[in-house]
Amino acid sequence: MNRVATLAVAFVVTLAAVLGGAAAVGFATADGAAPAPEIQNDHFLDDDLVVDDDPGQATVEMDASAASQTVLVDPGVEAGGPGPALPISLLGLGGGGVDDRDIRPLANALIENGHEVGVYVPDPDQRRPPARPGADRPTQLGERLAEADAFVTFRTDYEPEQLDEIESFVESGGHVVLATEPDAAYSQPGAASLDATLDVTTRPGYVYNMDENDLNYQRVYAEATGDSVLTEGVDRAVFPSATPVGTAVGGSEVLRPIEGSELSTTREATEAPLLVRNDEVVMIGDGDFLSPENARRADNDALIGNLADFLVTNDRTPPGAGGSTGPTPPGGEQPPTNGTAA
Fold first, then answer.
1. C-alpha distances in angstroms, 239 versus 124, 173, 181, 281?
2. Which pLDDT does position 14 carry in this prediction?
C-alpha cells in the first residue's frame, strides 16, 4: 500500500472512532445541539466563593489633619528603562496609559487632602557632582528623600548607598509603606537587603483559599488581629496575590488571612500575617490592592485611607537636624521639609 492510501485509511479509521465515541457518550443529540456538561468541581459551584462582582465605587477618606506633607513614591522603574512621558502617569495620573503601579486611590486621597505626591524615576544621564571634602553626596534617591516626609516603595532592588539613605530617612522619623508580591523574591533577589534595612521579612510563595475567597482562590481575605489605626473601619481586606510578611522583634501583626487559607509552597494552613507594622514602617504582602478596581473590594478603601493617614502622621525631622538624609547646604541653611512633587 502506498503512502497516500495509508494516510487515507488512517483518516477513515480515526473519523469513525471519533464519531462512534461521540454517539456512545451522547456528544451529539437528535436536534444537533450538544448538551451542557455538568460541572463536577465544587469550587466553581459554591455561591459563597463569588461575591459581588460589581461592588460600586470606593470611598477613600483620610482622618488625619496633618499639615501639608510630601509623599515620595518609587514604583521601581529602572534607570534608562521604558517609562511614561510624565512620571506622574506612573500613578495613573496625567496620562492616557496606566502603569502596573496604579495607586490612584492612595494618591488622590493624599492630594485632595492638601498633600503632595512625588514620583521617583532615576535619570541615567544625571551625574553626581564630586563631593566636598568630608561630605558625602547623596544619590538621586537620597536627594528626593531629603525633601520628603513619607516614602512608598515596592521592594525595589536598591544599591547599598540608597539603603543607607532609606535607613537614615526612617531614623529621622519618616514613614515608609513597603509593598511586596509573591514573585519579588525571584525577580528582585537584592530586595532582601531592603527588608533587612527596615527590619521586616517575607516568605516565599503565595497565600490562597479554596473555601472562601473573592472571585478566585488567590484573592484572599484578611482580617484584623486587633484594634489598630491601620484597621479602623476594616472588617475584611482583599489581597489579589499576597505573600506572608513579618517584622523583627517589637513589630506587630496587623492583618492575617482568614481561616482556610494555605501557603502555596507547603500546601498547609497558614496564619502568617499579610500586613505588619514595625514603628515607622508598614509592610504589605501585596501591592495590587491599591489599584482602583481593587480599592472597591471589601474594605480596601478604608485600609487605603488608613495607610494615607499613617504616611502623613509622622515625626519627620527636617534634613540636617539629626538623622539627616542629605548634606547641609553651604551657609548652614536647611532645605525645606516639604518639596515639590515632580
1. 34, 28, 10, 19
2. 44
